[in-house]
Amino acid sequence: MSAAAPTAPTALAASRCGSCGLVAFPAERYGCERCGAPADDHEAVELPAKGRIASFAEVHRHHQPEPPTPFVVAAVDVDGGPALKGVLVNDVGGAASADRLDPAIGEAVTGRFDANGDFRWVRVPAGIGA
């Protein structure tokens, strides 16, 4: 069985609290973590799978075989939503590559599911924008 090709989600399923307005991803199932409003008070919202790097760290050791080290974890300010953490990769010919990264705060990224179904932040080539 061959792995599926990487895909770019058009949106991320999130929720917005009707009481305090907190946007949560993934969509909140139990209630608002900020004000305690029940999940029934939340509305479904879609966030674009793009944003800008707010912070990042290069990981050299961890307890799982995947992803192989070193790799970069980035906190991304999602357009219209919260900051989401995830693995940052280069996009080389449509395939995710963990080649040496030199991320920058404010750099545009877009979200994509890799061939294994894992969500990754992918760098947007210069001049294209997010």
Terminal CA distance: 33 Å
Topology as a string of helices (H) and strands (E): EEEEEEEEE
The number of helical segments is: 0
- Quick one: how many beta strands? 9
Strand order of the largest sheet: 4-5-6-9-8
Structural class: mainly beta
Number of domain units? 2
Q: What's the rounded overall pLDDT mean?
A: 83
Largest sheet: 5 strands, mixed, barrel
- Please indicate the percent range of residues in DSSP E strands (runs of 2 or more): 35-45%
Which consecutive residue ranges, at least 5 long each, have pLDDT under 50?
none
Shape: elongated
Helix content: under 10%
Cα-atom Rg, whole angstroms?
Answer: 16 Å
Could you explain the architecture of this structure?
The protein has 130 residues and is mainly beta. The protein folds into 2 domains: 12-45; 49-123. It contains no helices and 9 strands. It has strands spanning 12-17, 23-24, 42-47, 50-59, 71-78, 83-92, 95-97, 108-113, 119-123. The protein has a 5-stranded mixed barrel. The radius of gyration is 16 Å and the shape is elongated. The model has no long low-confidence stretch (mean pLDDT 83).
List keywords for this structure.
130 residues; mainly beta; five-stranded mixed beta barrel; three-stranded antiparallel beta sheet; 43% strand; elongated
